[in-house]
Write a structure and sequence with these properties.
heterodimer; A: about 120 residues; alpha+beta; two-stranded antiparallel sheet; B: about 45% helix; globular
Chain lengths: ~120, ~180
């Protein structure tokens, strides 16, 4: 029924007004801070790298976005699920080193997902 | 002062405009300086003598994006301006109602500037400019009223914003419900 009425009035189903608002918010942040997407992606992956230095993280569900808040400012919101405390101490040389390498490799594969987020 | 139309816009510089506006200030209550679109030297010239800014934006992506850069440039010289206000022009209430146009609130939030006026898209503007008669002097409705409201707010009066949806016909209202 509703679709018939919609058809009759010839309205477009997609609410482009909200789309415009969301696109606009993102666009002005990028304009104001003059940041190319590559830099943003790099920053995100570095943030994850820092977190993974202290914790084992779940990179698949890590989320890192830049959002606007009032007063023409933006903030970085990073939600990084922590799996457990990283036991890698400075004294713990050999095994720690291996772990570090493994994590680094893992981290690289995560960069992509961070970029998409 | 209308925006420069001459080919050589570098013929005047910001200091000269400022001196000119300072002179005019002694003769008039208000000096309106039209500002060319964009953020080039024409913009810097126009704002040189200004102590108040009215940013005119339409509810479209490109316009809001430009306005955001303008706001950024004005904010960088915040001390110069008593007030920086926003006018949203060519608003189509029907489209906003149907969520096919950015709302006034959204635009204000994105730009973080105080609103001073909302002007509906009005075909009377075409007609009145054809005749060379200012719309604000010839009609009491719609855009003409919106212009006068802005003038009164500039003078410091508290004027409530017009309810633009009131002007939607019943048919359009029903249409908006199903959009």
């Amino acid at each position: 029924m509703k679709s018939i009425i919609k058809w009759f009035f010839g309205s477009k189903s997609e609410a482009s007004g909200s789309t415009a608002t969301n696109r606009m918010k993102l666009m002005v942040i990028h304009d104001r801070y003059q940041m190319p997407p590559a830099i943003v992606d790099q920053m995100k992956s570095e943030l994850l790298a820092v977190a993974s230095k202290y914790f084992e993280i779940d990179p698949e569900s890590a989320e890192c976005v830049i959002k606007s808040q009032g007063n023409r400012r933006a903030f970085i919101s990073a939600i990084v699920p922590l799996l457990k405390r990283n036991s890698n101490d400075t004294n713990d040389t050999r095994s720690g080193q291996n772990k570090q390498n493994r994590r680094t490799a893992k981290k690289d594969s995560n960069n992509l997902s961070a970029g998409v987020a | 002062l209308p925006a420069a139309q001459t080919r050589d816009k570098t013929a005047v510089n910001a200091d000269q405009i400022k001196a000119l506006v300072d002179d005019l200030k002694t003769m008039f209550d208000f000096v309106l300086v039209d500002c060319p679109a964009g953020i080039e030297s024409g913009f810097q010239n126009s704002i040189a003598g200004a102590d108040r800014a009215l940013i005119v934006v339409t509810p479209e992506m490109s316009s809001v994006r430009d306005a955001d850069r303008i706001v950024g440039l004005l904010e960088a010289r915040r001390d110069q301006f008593e007030d920086i206000n926003l006018i949203v022009n060519r608003v189509r209430p029907g489209l906003i109602e149907a969520n096919q146009m950015m709302s006034i609130d959204d635009i204000c939030e994105i730009l973080s500037v105080d609103l001073i006026g909302v002007i509906p898209d009005d075909e009377d503007i075409v007609i009145s400019t054809n005749k060379g008669e200012p719309l604000s002097l010839t009609t009491n409705k719609s855009a003409g009223q919106a212009y006068r409201n802005i003038a009164r707010r500039i003078l410091g009066e508290e004027v409530p914003f017009m309810d633009l949806n009131k002007r939607l016909g019943i048919f359009k209202k029903i249409k908006a419900m199903f959009a």
